[in-house]
Amino acid sequence: MNPATKRQPAHSPAQLLGIVKGFLDACRTPIAVEPGLQPVRIEPGSYALEEHRSGCVLHVWGEGGNIVRRITSIRSELSKRLDVRVRRFGASDTTLSLIDRATKGESFDRQADSIEFRESFRRVLQREFRDWEIARLSCAADLEHSLSPAYTRGVLTRGQEAWAVIGCADERNTCDQILTSGLIWLDRERSRGHKHVYRGLKVFLPYSRLKTTANRMAFLNRSVLEFDLHGFDEQGGLCQVDAGDYGNLSTELRPRVEIPPPAGPMAEWLRRITADPNVESISRPDGVRSLRVRGVEFAVAGQSVMTYGLETQTPLSEQRLPEALALARELARFRSPDAVDPRNPLYRKYPESWLESQVRRGLAKIDSRIHNDPIYSHVPAVAGVERGVIDLVACDSSGRLVILELKASEDMHLPLQGLDYWMRVKWHLDRNEIASRGYFPGIELSGLPPRLLLVSPAFDFHPTTETILKYFSPEIAVERVGVGADWRRELRVAYRKAGAGRLA
User: Which of 100, 107, 191 has its CA nearest to residue 149?
Assistant: First the structure.
């Protein structure tokens, strides 16, 4: 139970009236929210409270609606929210929430928005799916099952049939992550052992936020279940969209630029800097050479100029070369598995980049079939999708492309982030753009869909990863690769598992 929530004892009718009146008097902009109804604003002079023999009666009227409810008990009391048990004429008891909508604060705003969307979502479902019953509908957090209050989720039933449903009105990035929660919700409801047979999952989003989810849905396993996507507008209008549309991706694959061999003084500077065994020289597709220490870039070399620095770049010269060398040594000292202070920002910064550095050095341990060179990072670009991973694309001995998605900490969205990159690489591969734009020169690439490897510390795969992978299309050859907890010191594979297979 929320520590701020107080369990309420039984109250007399006079006490109930006093609590409700005191709460409303303290609110600046109170609203009444009840399941299935439009939230009603409670204006001064547009409501009445009267004592009743078994509680108190609240009557609210005005442009927002007209409701009469007999309050029988207090369910929970927070500083700016009061939940009461009410009795409706000719209907079952329910909960009425009184909320001060004028309260400011990100957490409260999200909670109030979620409750209001839940009720507007309920009305849409009742209107559009009249032959179906809304068995459940909730926007409460369920941390045990990794379900966020950002999404309203529910179940539609008709006889023995059922649909899992999930919706979101948030215009921020939570919309793009709804499918993760939707698949978790679907799987949870299917596994609860109810008498219903689930047809699949229906996802509801604003029209402007459909694209990412539509692209992802195109690669779910439709031979097992149905996956429907619906868009709605501000007036509640609803339209089903094609969730299998894979022809309009936000992706860009720029031609690879050949990096010329260094000349003049820059050749000597590169030789001296890369003589340090901790320094990596990475050829970027844009024609720039990146110099890094355990994933942190500290210098770059273009065709005619070389710069160094962490926050700001300074042109390198013979006089400044000792500073660049010292910077590399400082990074190696702080960014070391034996670092004296693991809390130092240089140690903690960019863990995915450090993992990338280890994977590049130990690629054969991840998969002995993958060629060490060439290997590209963040190619192609993924536009419009929030990403917290490092993505690499390589090819194996058969010429088949291999995508490695790297995450150094637990992330429930990793499977779908991997899918985002996989579908874009496949899109360019199908159009013969990978080879024609200069990638993997001299290698005959296979036309088979890319393989997808999700690489993370063994105990940092989110518990829902198997659940999400269960619904991937069989077309996606996906594998989880768990590396040892001491991966900063030495990369060891603790386990590898294909698809959604459970670990022993």
Answer: 107
